[in-house]
Structure formats: structure tokens, C-alpha cells
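Lecture 7, part B: from sequences to assemblies.

Below are the input chains for today's worked example.
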Amino acid sequence: MTTDKNTSPLLKRSFNLPEFLAENTIKGVSFISFAFIILIFVFVFREALPIFFPKEKIQEVKEEMIQETYGEEYLSADKEKKEVVSPLETSGDEGEATLKNLTGSEWQPVSRNPKYGLLPLVVGSLKVTLIAVLFGAPVAILAALFTAAFANKKVKELIKPTIEMLAGFPSVVIGFFALVVLATFLQNHFGYEYRLNAFVGGIALSLAVIPIVYTVAEDALASVPKVLTEASLSLGATKWQTALFVVLPAAIPGVFAAILLGVGRAFGETMIVLMATGNASLMSIKLFEPVRTMSATIGAEMAEVVFGDTHYNVLFMIGSILFIFTFVLNAIAEFYVRNKLMKHIGGE
Amino acid sequence: MKLQRKITGWLVVGVTFLSAFLIVAAIVLIMSDVILGGKDLISWEFLTGVPTEGMTAGGIFPAIIGTVLLVLIMSIVGVPIGTITAVYLSEYASRKSILTRLVRFAVNTLAGVPSIVFGLFGLGFFIQFVGTGMDNILTGGVELHWGQPNILWASLTMALLTLPVVIVSVEETIRSVPKDLREASLALGATKWQTIYKVVLPNSLNGIFTGTILAVGRGAGEVAPILFTGVAYYLPHLPGSLSDQFMNLGYHVYVMATQSHDVEATLGIQYATTLVLLVLTFTLTFAAMFLRYKIRKRAIH
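Predicted structure of the full complex, as C-alpha cells:
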């Protein structure tokens, strides 16, 4: 038996089988969530791993191919061989150079000469995330400041749940709205060439970023000690001066964590960008051009990919990068606000 | 000087108010657009009919049933695990033990993993590893039965995604159960497990319920995790076993809006499906909000 403070000393002495079973079953089941974190690490990385050991794999494929062509008619076999050999050779080159290829600037996974340059995807993800956060975070933080510092109780009780409700919107609904309504509206106003582009995707994505940044920032602003506010007010500062120069600076770590979590959310979001960014893997930093993000690439291509193919492995590789990136961001954010914060995200 | 300060004050309040207003306006705009676009098509026939004429007409019944089955299997698996983990965290865990830290770390991490990564994990683990392994044992690898996307793997993936939601909600409720109750039970001679089972859990039922509703609301709306773990574009029949694929409301919207050959012609169906999805998730969210409000009230007392 464990020695828990809550257990009375009487219970500690005797061994009780049901009690023992219950406690250990509960412990065992609790361990499942941790086990799955490990499994996620292992299995997402495992499928990405073959990229780093390309040579063995290619030899295997070659042998298989030769065996296959043996049994066929001479002419067709010859023809077949040629057809097979050319992609094989290129995939051999690709395979050998995959690591180099990954840093290339072209993403053309489905072609005779596949290119797996991740750069346009990384740039795409960063670009859309940046637009979403640059637009969403200030709006969310200012709105949080309004509810925490200026709004009276009634207005606050109306606005806060409404904005938090936005977190309950399925992302496919936001994506749909962006695709059907927002894209046309923005195109009519800004008059750019492509209807779906990084700008539309970013604005739509900010709708997913806003509730997270708002909730966390509002929490941080509201938990600034009343003593500070009252001291400032009693010294003759106005309400807005207090809000801007006392409350906001005191809540900066929380606000910073809110932004980080917003970045993580935007970076990993799939359905909105899949539907609203146009999905062309262009390498550009222009605002109004279509982009293809990392998450959207996985979402769009994984269903059609051949299992065990280099393309398949590269998609898992992208997933690993997404995982690591959001993991690090969340770790930093948690470092800032610790457990209090995670309760909110988990509960949304 | 005084006037200047006053004007700045108005500006600050005005700008922050505008930001809050902008967000609320966006929410109202999206909701009214979806409601106005979809309300005309909602009918009994639409809700209970199957897609016809190459998905350009008919209803969304299979998608509704697919979504319901998905969240049902997800809850059957996820809620007990989440509840037991919450019991551990609130009743057994001591702050310092390694297991406690590992579980807390896991819950926090799970909450932050992008949903598409869950999809990858479902594919790599459930389908390629567990499913193919099952096929190898059951049929000697001759038949591809479990080693492909189906509703079971999709539900398990979704259960994993919604696990933190359940854990956080249940733990909060269990902690709000008054200490007096526990102590009274222990003082009467009940063991710890008896106290948990007979006193703590019955008093936490609406927290478990809240967690389930929140998880279901989340699971019903997520599309990325099921993209390649079990969802299908069109199925003529409803899923009859765990190894069948299924249709899903969110995926239906996505596919109809991006991949159908005549997007314009199906716009009405897209709107109506979105409306059904939105009504479903919001009903669940509101119910959970209400229950949670009641729980918080108890926690204060």
C-alpha cells in the first residue's frame, strides 16, 4: 500500500486485495496517456526514418523490379524495363540526395523526377502563420484588455463566452466560410489575381488563433493583483493609464505565452489552410500568392501516396517537424505560465 | 494637457472595444451566413436521405450516422480512460512521484499536438502496425482486413485527441467534491477505493458528463485526424462493422467544397451540411458550458 496523507493509519496496516487491485489498475490506466506520447514520437518518426537510410532501400526495390520483369515477354519486358528503370534511376539519385533534396526549393513529389524540397512548404507555413498571428494576436490581446480592464460586468459576461465560443467552431467550418465568402469578399476589395492565397488563408487562420490568444491573455490580465490596480488609481492615474501602464506590463509573461500558443495553433492547423490558401507550392514571400503549408501538404497528399514510398516517408518527416515545433512552443509557453494555462487549453 | 489625456483615454478604450467588437461581429457574420445559406435545404428528407445523382442531390444521412458512430466509439474508449486518469491525478497522485509528472506531461503534450499529427500517428500505429499485425496473426497476412483505414482506427485516433479534454474536465470536478464527504466516508470505515467508487465518482457524474460532451463536440468537428484513418467520400451503405469505412459531416463539407466536379451546383448542400455540423457542435458546447457553470458554482461553495 502506498502511504498517502489522506489514508487513515488504520488502513495502511492491513493488506486489502480489492484496494490493491484498484490502485494499481488506476495507475496502469493513467500510464496509458504517457505511453501514447512515447508511441506518437516513435511511430511518427519511425515512418520518417527511411529517408536517412536511403541506400539499402533502393537496392531492395531494384531486386524486386528485376524479378518482376523476368517472367514477362521479351519485348514487353524490355519496354517495361525501360519505363521502370528511368524512374528508378532518378529515384535512386533522389534517394541518395534526399537529404540534400529536402532542403531544395521545389516540391514536386508526383512527377517522373520527384523533388522533395521542403523549403517552399516551410516558407508557406511560416508566411501564413505570420499573417494569422500578426492580425489575430493584437486584436485578441486588445479585446482581452477591454474585457479585463474596461468592460462592466454585464458586457464582460456577454463578450467573454461569445469569443470563447469561437474556439468551438470546427475548423472545417471556418475553412468553408473562408473559401466561399471571405475569399470573394477580400478579392473584390483588394483586387488581387488569385482568389485563394496566403492572405485569405492567414486571415481565416486568425479566427482559429484569436480564441486561444484571447482566453490565455484575458486570464493573465485578470489575474494581475488588485493591489497594483488600486495603487495606481489612488495615485491619480486614470483607468486607461492603469490598464496600459500597470496591468498590461504586469501580465506580459502571460500575454507572451498566449502569443506562442497562438503561433503553435496556427502552425499545426490543417483544414483551414487546406481550404483557403490555394495550395500551390510556390516559393515566394508575396502576400497575395497561393501557398502550400506543411500541414496542408500532409492532408492533401497522404491519402494518395503509396505506402513505404519515399514520398510517404517525406510526409511523415513533415509531420515530425510539425510535432517538434509545436512541442517546443508549448514547452516554452508552459514554462511561462505553468499548469494554470494548460487547464484552459485542455478544456477548450 | 487634460483634454489631450482625455482624448487619449477615449482612443484607448475605443480601440480595445473595437477589437472585441470585431471578433464578436466575425462570429455573428459566420453564423448568420451559414444559417441563411443552409436553412432552406434543411428538411426531414435531407437529414434522413442518402446522397443521390453523383452527390449533387439527396441527403446526408450516412454522414450524420458516420459522425455519430465515430464519436460513440471514441467516447466508449476515451471516457473511461480519461476518467480513471483523472481519478489518479486527483485522488492517488502525490506531487512528487515520477508517474504523476509523466502523466501531467503527457496530458499537456497531447493537448498541444496538431490534429494532423494524430492522423499520421493513426496511420502509422493503428493501421500499419496494429492492423497489419492483426492481419498477420488472424489470416497469415493473406487478407487485408484490419490493416486499412476503418471506423475503429479513426475512433481510436480521435479518442486519443480528445483524451486531455476529458481528463481536465473530470479532474476539475473531482477536486470540487467537498473534502467533508470523503472524510465522512473514510471515518465510517470505508476504504479509499470504496470512497472513490461510492462517494467521489457519483458526486462527479456531471463532470464526467461534461467532459464527454466537450470531447464529443471536439471529435464531431475535427477532420484532419480521420482524413487517412477511415473516412470515405461516398459509401452506398452505412458502416456495419468496426472494419468498415464511414462518411463524416466535416469531411463531407471539405470534399464537396474542394473536390467535387461542380462546386457551384452543390453549394446548397455544402451550406446545409455545415449548418448541421455547427448546430451539432454548438448544442454540445452549450450543454457542456451550462454543466460546467453548475460545477464551478459548487466548487465555490
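Note for the exam: Residues 151 and 241 of chain B are 8 Å apart (CA to CA). Keep this in mind when comparing with the next example.
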